[in-house]
Amino acid sequence: MVAGQVCAGRDVKGDDILVALALQFAGLSLVAFGGANAVIPEIHRQAVEVHHWMTDQDFASLFAIAQAAPGPNFLVTTLVGWKAAGLTRLGWRETILR
């Protein structure tokens, strides 16, 4: 089974990953009073240990890219979503092909 297709012990298909991502990040946004870096450990735990959307190395690479890129520190959430759901499920394929 491909990483990113297991959620709470069951197979995840299509839009279920998008729903899981939205729920995870909506909940984290409510407790991010210390800024984006305050919830990075919880994002890591959810993405790597709970949902198995990626490996430790994948998360570390995405975090490094987010920190090196200009813009908000919370760019890592976009990269986690891209890694977990892929571009086609995030709607980028239609945007790029137009």
Q: Can you walk me through this structure?
A:
The protein has 5 helices and 2 strands, in the order ββααααα. It has helices at residues 15-30, 40-50, 56-68, 75-89, 92-97; strands at 6-7, 10-11. The chain has a two-stranded antiparallel ribbon. Helix 1 runs antiparallel to helix 4 (75-89) and helix 3 (56-68) crosses helix 4. The longest helix is centred in the N-terminal third of the chain and has 16 residues, at 15-30. It is globular.
Task: Please report the total strand number as a whole number.
Answer: 2
Distance between the termini: 32 Å
Q: Determine the mean pLDDT.
A: 75
Poorly predicted parts: 1-12, 94-98
> Count the helices. How many?
5
Q: Proportion of β residues?
A: under 5%
Largest sheet: 2 strands, antiparallel
Reading the helices and strands in chain order gives EEHHHHH
Secondary structure: helix percent? 55-70%
Q: Please, how many domains?
A: 1
Shape annotation: globular
Which secondary-structure class do the elements indicate? mainly alpha
**Rg over CA atoms:** 13 Å
Strands of the biggest beta sheet: in what spatial order?
1-2
Defining traits:
single chain, about 100 residues, mainly alpha, two-stranded antiparallel ribbon, about 5% strand, disordered N terminus, disordered C terminus
Itemize the secondary structure elements and their pairings:
Layout: E1 6-7, E2 10-11, H1 15-30, H2 40-50, H3 56-68, H4 75-89, H5 92-97
Antiparallel strand pairs: 1-2
